[in-house]
Here is the input.
Amino acid sequence: MRILVISVELPTENRPQTTAPQARQIESLRKLGNDIDILELKGVRKLKYLQALPDLWKKLRSVDLIHAHYGYCGWLARAQLTKPTIISLMGGDVYGVPDSQGRIIPSTRLVARINQLVARTMNAVIVKSAEMAELIKPVPSHIIPNGVDINTFQPMDPREAREMLGWPEGKRYILFAGNPGNSRKRFPLAQAAVSEAAKITQEPLELVPLRKVAPSLVPVYMNACDALLMTSYKEGSPNVVKEAMACNTPVVSVSVGDVPDLLDGVSGSMVCDDTPENLAYGLLHAFSIGKQGSDGRLALQRKRLDLESVAKQIMGVYAKVLDRS
Here is the structure.
């Protein structure tokens, strides 16, 4: 099968990006025997989509199917009508982007609406959660969260991980799931929760943002921390939660995206109301269970969210689209 993937910029060791899960998904599809060409959108923001048009038309001759990742990439993919096209919607491209108060920014609400209309023109739509599937109705969709590389993300000795990062012992570390500068992630709420937990435990706690970290070091950060804290206003199916689960790192999260389903029955992890007090209680629970008592990795495998299982689901969508074309 020859597939053209249209993607925003993918990460390298020297240029970390939040698209690392997408890059791993592409490689997992290649491992199953697919011939994948990538149209990676780089350059000046917004203009890069127009600049990519000549490359898109040139690549059309040699592919069977187009798979666009993210809303804007779907707009570009629909600049042609000769090849069957699939879009993967990620979250913000369906919800819109909230401001620091959780209100959806009007311009992004409009973009989300356009993405929902573009989805109607696609041969198939993939979304990351049931909540997203509801938002794009009546367009039918396939709910397929991104998978996790369970060979890369696996448990290791926390002391060894901290030594690799040069972190001192004698304190607990909490990993913040995202960029503190992104208002959607609600960093102030995470800070308040950690401060509240520190008052109760009377021990030093450090909140560590997962930002500009080389892909190869992300599993080390996961293992060096005592818990992952997720406070976002909006998410689809956050890979950072699944990656923490694969490392048996307890997760404390607000109810967002598919996180309640991911953490259902996972020992040491907890979904909490979005107040500092409730999240602090969740952190104390995570500390009491510890990484040794967490079974997130087992839950992840039981839900078949490893890379290969997810790649096979995506290939099933490809096969259905090509059969109908």
